[in-house]
Amino acid sequence: MDAFFLQVLNGLDKGGAYALIALGLTLVFGTLGVVNFAHGALFMIGAFCAVTFRKIITLQQVALSETELSPWGTPLEIHTPYAQMWFGDFGKVLIDYSVPFSLLLAIPVMLFIGIAMERGLIKHFYKRPHAEQILVTFGLAIVLQEIVKTFFGANPNPQPIPQAFQGAADLGVLVGMAQHTITYPIWRLVYLLFSLGVIAAVFAFLRFTTFGLVVRAGMNDRETVSMLGINIDKRFTIMFGIAAIVAGLAGVMYTPILPPDYTLGMDFLVLSFIVVVVGGMGSLPGAVLAGFTLGVVQSLASMTVVKDIIPGIDQIIIYLVAVIILLVRPRGLFGKRGVMEN
Amino acid sequence: MVKAVNNTVLHVADVHKTFGGLHALADVDLAIEEGKTHAIIGPNGAGKSTLLNVIVGKLAPTRGTVVLDGEVLTGKSPYEINQMGVARVFQTPEIFPELSVFDNVMAPAFAKRDGSFKMNMFKSIESEKAIADAAEEIIVDFGLDAMINTHAGALSRGHKRRLELAMCLIQKPRILLLDEPTAGMSRHDTNTTIELLKKIKLSGMTKVIIEHDMHVVFSLADKVSVLAQGRIIAEGTSDEVRANPKVQEAYLGEAQE
Amino acid sequence: MFNISKKDAITFLLFSIVVLTMPIWLAPLGASYPGLLQKFAIYALLAVGYNILFGLTGYLSFGHAAFLGVGSYAAVWSFKLLSMNPVLALVFAMVFSGIFALAIGFVSLRRSGIYFSILTLAFAQMSYKLAYSVLSPITHGENGLQLTLQDPRAIDLMFIERGSSLPVSSFFGIPMNGYAGFYFCAIILLIGFFIAQKITSSPFGMMLKGIKSNEDRMNYTGFNTKPYMLTAFVISGMYAGIAGGLLSITDPLAGAERMQWTASGELVLMTILGGVGTLVGPVIGAWIIKYFENIFSAWNESVLHGFFSFLPDNIESFVVLISSKFVGEGWHLTLGLMFVLVVVFLPGGIMEGVRRISAMFKKNNDAEKEVIDPDNIPKSTSGKGE
Questions:
Q1: CATH number of the structural domain spanning residue C211
Q2: CATH classification code of B1-85+174-257
């Protein structure tokens, strides 16, 4: 039973990442009606915002020590990050917390990339067939991915967890179990809470602001909303930017869990699409629920007990669940009739 | 309840259809007689299109059956119902926009000859002389010969309607269902369509026609049923229906719209 | 069976000439070596088969790589267990991929639109993941399935002694590598192309186009679309299986990576790049992508220096620096850009470009003389996706 809980927890943080990507995909699909295969690339670019931020913040001044010698008899090199030289202790904190701080970089960058993408390319594809949307965004994803590769190379770029969040939390003790029954890496817990926070923020934004109200109305009936004299296109562009930010933030915070490389986006893209479809195209709660469900199910399937009964199940469980759900509920968990069926 | 008389082709027996709590059709009973043109009229939302959808198998009735020549249609798929001889013209023309006019007419002919599925993949279309000739004949009859190789999607709305009618007629259906065949047409086009339908009538084909335009109804129909709020409130010849106070009431209620 | 329209016959003849003379006309392009020529023929066949499903019916499958993989494995197992005969291997590849396609198609075709795409994607990914893990006894996992000296080869060894080196697949004594391998693949491609032509111009093909155009109308017209779709799916799966078999015949090593979804994605791209729904388009798409993958990716800075040597030195090194980002390791960037540009400006693919250009010429001609003869009404269906 304890092992079960642990696996559920393990699945939740991955589920959080799935849910965040799927949320953005669904927002874009629901508002703009565009199937965006470049959405995974946005997640990846978010992750590389963290990499870039850390690269900048850890730029070092190299000085030769006048007194000390290295083991080879040459003068010892002293590396001091500029950030530390200029900002002192705050610089140290900045370096330690580079991942959370890069969220601040990621927000404007992602907003800019998102809006540029929508205005520059995607806007011309609203009325085109879904197959063409898939193709053009897929091409765009390849381009983005290759550009990242030219700048950062093909190797993974590990990012450190801030010191305060390293190690594992003994969650079992909190609920009165013996020590070390359920220990859980703190950063994953942070990720889970972070993703819940972002999801809540997006829902609150759509629910309680006038902007959100218009966008939701537009998702239901674009023409009527336009007839009311509201410039729905502009709002949809901003929605695309927001979806890009959500994907980017998810990417930033995921870097300590999985060192990003340029293929990160594609790896997550397929799974996120499955998440979106299982949740039901165009349904935001569906995307979130399916994201967490599939994360947990995947994690449970990789338990040894389960694998002993059905060998290989951990490899295919997500796809299997997707197939079963689609056969039982033709439009996913919360899908609407007539969406994306031809 | 209407008794099915001997020459009944299609019998809609006591059909109910509810959506949620809404009664779209209630106790609908219709006997469509051989060779007659039976019009179904009624205000908007009376359930006319729902009725057609039930007949062609797009919707399953909540209760009741539809019988064609003694065979029950209810529960069968649209393609089976078509194979039994029911062809339908839709309110907005349902054609194959990317195919040529010629192919649009050929496809139904193949369905009539080969049934619902045939792996006919090594014979070329050119070698299907009989079908090609029949298709060409009907295309000429319908005055579409000038655009025989045009993509159907490029036709005008009126031509699309005519094409769809040709697609149905090449199958020589037992019964033809027409859903507002003149909706959105100019007076001139409407008259042309009436002439066309009169010609079909002479061939003795059984037809059910849903129509808003009373001019069309009274020039074509042998029998008229009036549907209001899912129920048949009157039935008879054009003149009888016109004189019926219930009908006037139903339409006057609508007239303020 | 063999009667085809005059237009189709001309297309087939020209296509045969182009394919069979590939070793000659590809030489100036630096692509005339057997390994690449074989790939051109094999992937063209794959694309032709894929087009029968996607081009004619409009159903976008993201799982065809699975059939390619199944075909490869089946062919290698036919080598290992029975004989090095390529025809037998192809029969195996076709049968197994056909059965596989029947099973996957039967389930996936219960849905349409993106739901169909996701179902096929899910099945292909499952096959890929399983091939890497629990199915290792059959697929040999990461190492890939290959021939060994100890293989039983039951039929072959009845007639000949076991040799001391690994055998090569051979057809009546002709080894299936080098140019002979290419011509074997090319002939299979031509047969496949011919069959695709027949299907496209048959009533069956017309029904498939009808499904793409308006599936509801097909139902109300009396067609049961499910068996039509399933047949198209299985045929197109068999094409992929045979293509996989050919990959194994020319190089008897089958790996699971052939089944990954990116391989299916590449196939979709080939088809759309060339022109969905046309017969020749997907073939051109396949050739262009394979050419870029093999030739462009092999270019490096020294090749570029040679290419731009006519420029002044400063400009040359700048041009080389920029263009080097697009070749070699960076050829994917070129590929991605190419797709974006094609989809934005030529949504019908390269074939649409060809059509536009020929329409331009035709217009000029039309001005001089009347070309349409009103009495001669052609009765063939025009190509889809125009």
A1: 1.10.3470
A2: 3.40.50.300
Q: What whole-number distance in Å separates Cα of residue C204 and Cα of residue C188?
A: 23
Is C153 within the bounds of a domain?
A: yes
Q: List, in sequence order, the alpha helices (H) in chain B.
A: 48-56, 78-83, 101-114, 129-141, 157-169, 187-202, 214-220, 238-243, 245-255
The verdict on residue C240 lying in a domain is yes
Lowest average pLDDT, out of A58-67, A157-166, B56-65, C203-212, goes to A58-67
Residue B103: per-residue pLDDT: 94
Q: Does C276 reside within a domain?
A: no
Residues in A closer than 8 angstroms to C115, CB to CB, are: 277, 326, 330-332, 340-341
Q: How far is B161 from chain C (nearest CA, A)?
A: 14
**What range does the domain containing A287 cover?**
2-58+109-328
Any chain A CB within 8 A of the CB of C129?
Answer: yes
Q: Domain holding A293: CATH number?
A: 1.10.3470
CA distance C204 to B110: 10
Instruction: Choose the closest CB to C216 out of B94, B106, B123.
Output: B94
pLDDT-flagged residues of chain A (< 70): 1, 222-223, 225-227, 229, 336-342
Report chain C's mean pLDDT, rounded to a whole number: 86
From chain A, pick out residues whose CB is under 8 angstroms from the CB of C345.
Answer: none
Query: C207 CA to chain B: closest CA distance, Å?
Result: 7
Contacts of C218 in chain B (CB under 8 A): 79, 107
Q: Domain total for chain C?
A: 1
Nearest Cα residue in chain B from C218: B79
pLDDT value of residue C380 = 40
- Chain C interface, best mutation among A138, A310, A333, by max C CB count within 10 A: A138
Residues of C in contact with A301 (CB under 8 A): none
**Annotated domain spans of chain B:** 1-85+174-257, 93-172
pLDDT of residue C381: 38
Interface B:A, ≥3 CB–CB pairs < 8 Å: no
Q: Tell me the shortest Cα–Cα distance from C265 to chain A, in angstroms.
A: 9
The predicted pLDDT at position B229 comes to 86
Nearest Cα of chain B lies from the Cα of C53 at a distance, in angstroms, of: 14
Residue A224 in domain:
yes
Higher pLDDT, C374 or C187: C187
Domain that holds residue C200: 6-260
Q: Is A86 a domain residue?
A: no
Do A16 and A194 touch, CB atoms closer than 8 A? yes
- DSSP conformational letter for C166: -
- For the segment C344-373, what is each residue's pLDDT rounded down to a tens digit? 888 888 888 888 888 888 877 765 544 444
Structure tokens at C51: 């087009």
| C213 close to C41: Cβ distance less than 8 angstroms | no
For the ranges A3-12, A63-72, B217-226, C230-239, the maximum mean pLDDT occurs at: C230-239
A104 belongs to a structural domain: no
Q: Is residue C378 part of a domain?
A: no
- What letter would DSSP give residue B88? E
User: pLDDT: is C287 or A76 the higher one?
Assistant: C287
Question: How many domains in chain A?
Answer: 1
ipTM of the complex: 0.90
The model carries a pTM of: 0.87
Question: Residue C254: left if φ>0, alpha if ψ -120 to 50, beta else—which one?
Answer: beta
CB pair distance less than 8 Å for B124 and C3: yes
Nearest CA to C12 out of C143, C228, C213, C189 is that of: C189
The alpha carbon of residue B137 and the mean position of all alpha carbons in its chain are separated, in whole angstroms, by 22
Cβ-Cβ contacts under 8 Å, A136 against chain C: 339-340, 343-344
Q: C262: closest CA among A138, A17, A318?
A: A138
Mutate to test the interface with C, among A117, A298, A319 (most CBs of C within 10 A): A319
Looking at per-residue pLDDT, the higher value among B214 and B109 belongs to: B109
B87 vs B253 pLDDT, higher one: B87
* Cβ within 8 Å, pair C379-B127: no
Give the best-scoring range by mean pLDDT among A81-90, C82-91, C159-168. C82-91
Nearest-neighbour CA in chain B from C300: distance (Å): 46
Q: Do C225 and B79 touch (CB under 8 A)?
A: yes
Q: Compute CA distances C260 → B122, C46, C69, C131, whole Å.
A: 34, 15, 9, 10
